Amino acid sequence: MAYAHGHHESVLRSHAARTVADSAAYLVSSLFAGARILDVGAGPGTITVDLADRVFPGQVVGVDAAADVVEVARAAAAERTNVSFRVGDAYALDVPDASFDIVHAHQTLQHLARPVDALREFRRVAGPEGLVAVRDVDYGGVIWHPRIPALDEWLEIYHGVHRGVSGEPDAGRSLKAWAREAGFTRIEASASVWVFDTDDKRAWWGGMWADRVLASAFAGHARRLGLADDALLQRISDAWREWAADPDGWFLMPHGEVLARA
Question: Which of 15, 129, 197, 203 places its Cα 20 to 30 Å from the Cα of 96?
């Protein structure tokens, strides 16, 4: 199974900026000292490490399918004693039943062809008393200002690339339904947003996507699937820089969230 974004520097630049505060605030009240946490789809590990700091001395394990990204995460957490990283498969986690208090996955289910199967595996690992916490974006609800036409093209192409590679870009709205299908009976659903509005935030987000649309795996997939050529990708990249430079620029990304127990 391919990953729509790949692991270009522009992608990891986005992932490495994430923290519990901006990406897992819905989980904070469930954290406690000594908690054992499995973080699935950990990427470069910034959320994983933040979780480890919050539940110390509890042990936190980050799992990712990409070996090179696991090495990046290991290097970043080298001096911490209660966090580790390993290569793993979300459908077949190499851990015993009920071995973690919390199984966490941020922006992971949207990239899986079988999200319900992954949730069933998370349920096994958390056991009857454990908690499964998942959060995913919903690209169908993304809104921005000003409405630069090439960004409308970007969103259309993004949906095509994501679905053409694997997964569901509008996953946020389905998390509750997927959790119910996976057999969870106690489900708390919520939502939160990312907003990029200040000069610094626009420069970071717009600059990241301006690079990403040209150089990451997204660009290769868009060409391969016949969704965009080089000229269109360049126009979208330029549009991201135009948006970032506009003092009235504003961009919102909604996320669905679920806290689920068996």
Answer: 15
Rounded to whole angstroms, how far apart are CA atoms 127 and 117? 15
Q: Rounded distance, CA 15 to CA 156, Å?
A: 22
Q: What is the pLDDT of residues 224-257, one digit of tens each?
A: 999 999 999 999 999 999 999 999 999 999 999 9
Q: What is the pTM of this model?
A: 0.95
pLDDT value, residue 10: 64
| 111 within 8 A of 118, measured Cβ to Cβ | no
122 and 104 Cβ atoms separated by less than 8 Å? no
Structural domains of the chain, with CATH: 9-261 (3.40.50.150)
Beta strand residue intervals within the chain, DSSP E:
37-40, 60-64, 83-87, 102-106, 131-137, 143-145, 186-196, 250-261
Q: What is the pLDDT of residue 14?
A: 63
